[in-house]
Amino acid sequence: MNWDDTADDDTAERLVGASADHEEQAVEAALRPKDLGEFIGQEKVREQLDLVLRAARARGATADHVLLSGAPGLGKTTLSMIIAAEMEAPIRITSGPAIQHAGDLAAILSSLQEGEVLFLDEIHRMSRPAEEMLYMAMEDFRVDVIVGKGPGATAIPLELPPFTLVGATTRAGLLPPPLRDRFGFTAHMEFYEPAELERVIHRSANLLDVEIDPAGAAEIAGRSRGTPRIANRLLRRVRDYAQVKADGFVTREIAGAALAVYEVDSRGLDRLDRGVLEALIKLFGGGPVGLSTLAVAVGEERETVEEVAEPFLVREGLLARTPRGRVATPAAWAHFGLTPPRPSTGGNGQQDLFGA
């Protein structure tokens, strides 16, 4: 039952988008687990984090700084709140894009209480001056505040109470090594297996007073793209359909009919995903085709295709990126009930992928 707060303008309206808007975050808050025992999935991360927190409590010390990485919707924000709850400490929530100046960060740090948890979402998007100030704050619990300008500028050291920074990022590779190395515990969040998502759905259904049978939960889980946030979103839409079109009880048939209305197919693909694959297959014979050309064919911006649709399609083995462009894989052809063309043989005797 786990997801994050990061919103993205391109994906906020997608039913299978992993980001959440502000209205949805309020709904999610009621479904969030409150402790590690309630948290479903991420077994290794939970076990390791439990040891870190128990040891800190036994010492009567503040927990080490924690870095959580992984795709949106997997539970980074939820874990940060659980860390605060387990340590019986307040939590302050902000994000990298909101901290564009060192002064912004100094104002937040100087107001922290001892032992407080500071959750910094999308930490890789923080400005460089603020990032450099954070180094000293994490390591020495001190920041230098610059007063004045030019030759008369003075650095005033400001002592900070011990605190725990929980950083979350969807792109851990963008974090500079000096920042990454200052975290005492790092964890990577993995996508969920269908069985884990079924447990998430049953738990959420119980909290939402939705009657659902195991087959109905399995149908929703299979279309949730390995992401708890998406599973909960699909559950709410299926609930609406069941209340209006049926007796409110969610079965496999009801779940399938509801998600067909919302254009989420059996593999979790939505209109944009299918549009990309259909353009590749029907207009370009499976590819290869350049990203810009593909974006024009589906009527979307290049960035939308590359950052919103492609990650899932590549992860599912439906689309491949090659030096010559995007290619639909045999699995993509099979998904539409089509047979891929026979690979041609180039003049050099090497077989080209789909005629590339």
Automatic annotation (TrEMBL):
Residues 266-356 are annotated as: Head domain (RuvB-H). It is found in: Cytoplasm. The keyword Ion transport does not apply. ATP binds at L31, R32, G73, K76, T77, T78, E139, D140, F141, R182, Y192, R229. It comes from the Bacteria. SMART domains: AAA. GO terms for molecular function: DNA helicase activity; hydrolase activity. CDD domains: AAA. Residues 1-24, 335-356 are annotated as: Disordered. Residues 1-11 have a biased composition (Acidic residues). Mg(2+) binds at T77. It catalyses: ATP + H2O = ADP + phosphate + H(+). Homohexamer. Forms an RuvA(8)-RuvB(12)-Holliday junction (HJ) complex. HJ DNA is sandwiched between 2 RuvA tetramers; dsDNA enters through RuvA and exits via RuvB. An RuvB hexamer assembles on each DNA strand where it exits the tetramer. Each RuvB hexamer is contacted by two RuvA subunits (via domain III) on 2 adjacent RuvB subunits; this complex drives branch migration. In the full resolvosome a probable DNA-RuvA(4)-RuvB(12)-RuvC(2) complex forms which resolves the HJ. The RuvA-RuvB-RuvC complex processes Holliday junction (HJ) DNA during genetic recombination and DNA repair, while the RuvA-RuvB complex plays an important role in the rescue of blocked DNA replication forks via replication fork reversal (RFR). RuvA specifically binds to HJ cruciform DNA, conferring on it an open structure. The RuvB hexamer acts as an ATP-dependent pump, pulling dsDNA into and through the RuvAB complex. RuvB forms 2 homohexamers on either side of HJ DNA bound by 1 or 2 RuvA tetramers; 4 subunits per hexamer contact DNA at a time. This is Holliday junction branch migration complex subunit RuvB.
